[in-house]
Specification:
The chain is mostly helical and 402 residues long. The protein contains 19 helices and no strands. α13 packs across α15 (326-336) and α14 (315-322) packs across α15 (326-336).
Length: 402
């Protein structure tokens, strides 16, 4: 008789179950790839997906009538909230993608101390209630009802909410610092912009806001039914499939493959490390005679050899061609031309495009074709850069030539 109600596959339980199982499959695939390739980002994303699926557990089995069938179940003692682990993992994942040299070390364990304290308290609650003579006849003991639900859970929720806000803010800052810094090293940033990572952060920010609003409504305005709270878990389950698919099939090791494994945009760097590979612009400082000579050589090389036509041109590549160090080349471009490497190279590309358009090359090639001929590798990037540097769209610029 006990198995007649559970499992109950219905319109609420079935979607959560199916989507969560698919999420677990991607977590397993990422873990397996980590064992093969030892990429830290794979194991971190695997844990993020695993935790997100795990948080669907109580609602999934609830809609499958677990609690009605096993009315004295002790599952609430063993299912532990992992939000305080999830928050730092999000930061570490983005850090591992934007810095191939990043490693998890013992010092990072401090991020997980709050959750360990919470886990210790949960264990004490379990032992305390388990010692009660009527523990087997109830679903939740006295410590859960009179201590955990009244005091511990609200404190943990508020702490988790503040913690997630802090870590999301740091992670977004880290990501957009990365997006700015790559302009110092890549002429075409399209392949290393990591738009998937931006979407990943938007998803977890959306889930956090959705859950926060839902909790506030439930606690302060009106008690939400389980079927109303189901939507948050449904959206979470759907989005975790997107994260699994994109995270598994989107390559994130471009920096290391291109020889930029030293790049790191974290907040723990020493001051001298942040200027190791790119020199900040100082408008008051004059160039040394050596840098003046390098600047003249660079200008001549750009005009005669046209290295900007190579869509894969990077700071490393150009430095090797000129037989100068990355540091020296970066300093010449930043101080001598008052530009980032990306703008410096793209400036030549835009001038080449303008020259081709003035020669009516658009009669032979499309605008995209001309952009590719001049070193761009993305139509969207070409349009954005062209408008930034000319204040006109390519079509508007053509009209000025008529």
């Amino acid at each position: 008789m006990i198995f007649q109600s559970f499992p109950n596959f219905n319109i609420y339980s079935s979607p959560l179950l199916i989507l969560s199982v698919q999420g677990l499959i991607f977590a397993f695939l990422l873990f397996k790839r980590y064992l093969d390739k030892k990429a830290l980002s794979d194991i971190l994303l695997s844990l993020i997906i695993l935790i997100t699926c795990y948080h669907r557990t109580t609602y999934t089995i609830g809609f499958m009538d677990w609690y009605d069938t096993y009315q004295n179940t002790k599952i609430n003692y063993y299912v532990v909230d992992l939000s305080m682990i999830l928050a730092p993992l999000l930061y570490f994942y983005v850090r591992s993608v934007t810095c191939s040299a990043f490693k998890i070390s013992r010092k990072h364990s401090v991020h997980f101390i709050p959750w360990l304290i919470f886990l210790f308290i949960k264990i004490l609650i379990l032992f305390s209630d388990a010692s009660s003579p009527d523990f087997d006849s109830v679903q939740n003991g006295e410590m859960v009802i009179n201590f955990q639900w009244k005091y511990l859970d609200p404190i943990v929720y508020l702490f988790s909410m503040l913690q997630m806000i802090v870590y999301l803010a740091l992670t977004f800052q880290l990501f957009y610092a990365y997006r700015q810094k790559i302009k110092d090293f890549f002429s075409n940033t399209y392949s290393v912009e990591l738009n998937w990572l931006r979407n990943f952060l938007y998803i977890y920010a959306f889930l956090f806001l959705f859950n926060s609003v839902q909790t506030i409504v439930n606690e302060l305005i009106v008690d939400l039914k389980w079927t109303q709270e189901w939507w948050y878990h449904f959206f979470s389950a759907i989005l975790i499939i997107y994260i699994g698919v994109k995270g598994y099939f989107t390559p994130v090791g471009n920096l290391k493959a291109l020889g930029f494994e030293y790049l790191d945009f974290g907040f723990s760097q020493k001051k001298e490390d942040t200027t190791k590979h790119t020199i900040a612009v100082n408008k008051k400082e004059e160039l040394s005679p050596k840098l003046v000579k390098t600047k003249e050589f660079l200008s001549s090389y750009m005009q005669n050899e046209k290295p900007y036509l190579d869509p894969d041109m990077t700071l490393v590549t150009l430095a090797k061609q000129l037989d100068v160090s990355r540091e020296e080349l970066s300093e010449v471009i930043n101080k001598g031309f008052r530009l980032k490497f990306n703008d410096f190279i793209n400036g030549y590309r835009i001038e080449a495009i303008k020259q081709m358009l003035s020669e009516n090359k658009q009669a032979e090639l499309s605008l995209t074709g001309i952009a590719y001929e001049c070193g761009f590798n993305s139509k969207a990037t070409f349009n954005r850069v062209f408008k930034k540097m000319t204040r006109l769209s390519p079509s508007d610029f053509i009209n000025t030539l008529k």
